[in-house]
Amino acid sequence: MTGSPLTIDGDRLWRTLMELAEIGAYHDERTGLRGVNRLALTDADAEGRRLVIGWLREAGLDLRVDPMGNIIARRPGTDADAAPVVTGSHLDSVATAGAFDGCLGVLGGLEVVRTLDERGISTRRPIEVVVFTEEEGVRFGTDMLGSAVAAGRIPLAVAHDLIDRDGISVGAELTRTGFAGDGPARFDPPHAYVECHIEQGPVLARAGLSVGVVTGVQGISWQQVTITGRAAHAGTTPTELRADAGIAAARIVLRLREMVDCAGYGELRATVGHLAVHPDLTNIVPARAELTVDLRNPDDEQMARAEADLADYLDSLVGSGITVSTRRMARTAHVPFDARVQQVIAAAAGDHGLDQMSLLSGAGHDAQEMAAICPAAMIFVRGEYDGISHNPREYSTPEACARGIDVLATALVRLADE
Amino acid sequence: MTGSPLTIDGDRLWRTLMELAEIGAYHDERTGLRGVNRLALTDADAEGRRLVIGWLREAGLDLRVDPMGNIIARRPGTDADAAPVVTGSHLDSVATAGAFDGCLGVLGGLEVVRTLDERGISTRRPIEVVVFTEEEGVRFGTDMLGSAVAAGRIPLAVAHDLIDRDGISVGAELTRTGFAGDGPARFDPPHAYVECHIEQGPVLARAGLSVGVVTGVQGISWQQVTITGRAAHAGTTPTELRADAGIAAARIVLRLREMVDCAGYGELRATVGHLAVHPDLTNIVPARAELTVDLRNPDDEQMARAEADLADYLDSLVGSGITVSTRRMARTAHVPFDARVQQVIAAAAGDHGLDQMSLLSGAGHDAQEMAAICPAAMIFVRGEYDGISHNPREYSTPEACARGIDVLATALVRLADE
Lengths: 418, 418
Known about the structure:
Structural class of chain A: alpha+beta
Number of strands of chain A: 18
Largest interface: A-B, 72 and 72 residues
Shape of chain A: elongated
Helix content of chain A: 25-40%
Order of helices and strands of chain A: HEEHEEEHEHHHEHEEEHEEEEHEEHEHEH
Oligomer: homodimer
CATH architecture of the largest domain in chain A: 3-Layer(aba) Sandwich
């Protein structure tokens, strides 16, 4: 493996992370901490993008914005014809986020470029830092949206037509915020893709390590379940005459927990994050309930079995005035990352003197979309507090962040000189 | 018992019911029926009130609006000093209502007065027809609000300060809609109170009867339960590290159903009509859940035991990051109605040649508030489809409505001649 290990400026990286976290910041009453709320293509997201674009321009990068709002910042290589090495992540957040999810990968890429410039290091291949649009999927219902369009999995027109709960479309918000760019929606296949991200889980912290090499992303299945029952008066309607959609919803929530606890589906995780009843009034038996089911599994067969058994359970609830319908929101199979890119990352970590481990990602990431068009892998950075994320308590130390970006820098340069 | 049975004009009564139901009408997609949405002190409620006020004025009644927005329409008696006999009900509805709940009692009172005028019948005591404000309690969280203020149970200032989900107060809405009247907030004790209402349950229909004499109202307990857990990433957070407020909420929903089914709490009914999670996003473990618990029981001791056991269950959920808090929204004990007024109603029904039965009310009614300041009882009218109510399918036949108001007319005249 060629190229000396490259050490970035951890203090400068930290300052950019903290400055970006001011945009969309809010006071979280429960934790007393400062949280971040920067849902994709809101005013806050647009403001965060403009801040980062300013930094990317200051670093001398050539910028383009594609029709999906993905921002591609390019540092030229010495070989004008060579396919680039790409790094990146996202700036959009969930509604109750911390400072690190996504931002570490983007600002880490920026920091790598700054370091290369300061050291006068050129690479054969271009290095690109990408900001992908709507990675979280919480606003428009499909996660990794920007990278999925870039990789050609989701057509641009389909992505543009997705709407949020208020009926506002991705396309309209891209135009409104000034991020409806032009040029091709699909990326030319890069030479490789490497993304640094916080782990969002407890594995590295429990192992006492700062960084990990990600072997792949577990399968993800998102469904919306709608239950219809019958509205009725809470005081007068005998229990046996009720068709209570809320009770059916509660049964589904607990059934999913039973499926997780029974250990019959491998390493299944299940979450009902969205749950609502209608008409949602104290003294009316719910006529309708709506919930989302988020399943994760590193084993595609176990996932398929969990989905099938859930479908059977939903069928078993039908009758006596109750009907159940489902709508597929998203589904991605287990994505294994490229073995050689993992080796480059592992070697870089070793050259930085870092103990490391390989681990699977529990969350979806833009890297899994890029993996469809080029060799890709990820670097995970340890999170404190058991890696809690999507929560204002999300925290990685300045040291852990710097070590992760050290490894990113070294790996990117080595891949860019291939 | 003096006074001949008085038969009202059922066709005219029906026309007023149907005309009023046009106000706040909506097309219900699920049933294909026309529903009514006239939440208290909305524009639709105000429009309905103005329509009914017009009819009450045409009938020659003296109107006043009290500071709680209750409308009192008075037909003088021959004895200026005699306490009035009062009938009435409410015009506000739940969000998914039919044409009969409340409206039958008010328009029935109007029809009684029209009939007395046409027949040239005078009574010793005045007869008053009252429209009570916010009986449903779904907008401002406290049911029987107008009658509770009139009866002195809830202070006027407390009622005025109640707010809806948007933070808008009762007082502000009374002023905005023009129904902030003057004069005393508390009623002088009437001689008696009789209210005719749809049963909202299956008892009369299953017994094959048109009308029933109501012996009282079962106890009602409303609580809001708030569960706090911890937001976390759905993909990465191991199940054992989660504090999922949504799962705790689901457990409560099902526990209540178990309590009902176990038959250990007498004729307990339990409903979770409101259920919401926060942040309510697909891939985030709910950090908070909120639900309402509506308990009904005709036996005060059984009710108290159910409440205590529920409180114990809520306590048992606390721990591992989950906390539970409750807020009392409303509580009324079992209210027995006046035996003699029940006798007057039963005799009137008999004189009309109607088979009848006595039954307990499952729902709360303004009559239970009036029962605190005067002898009171109710007439129930049979509902079709097992008495479904708070639903666009709510329906009572023109014949059943007319028979109920026949009984009301005869009972009111007899009480007004005492």
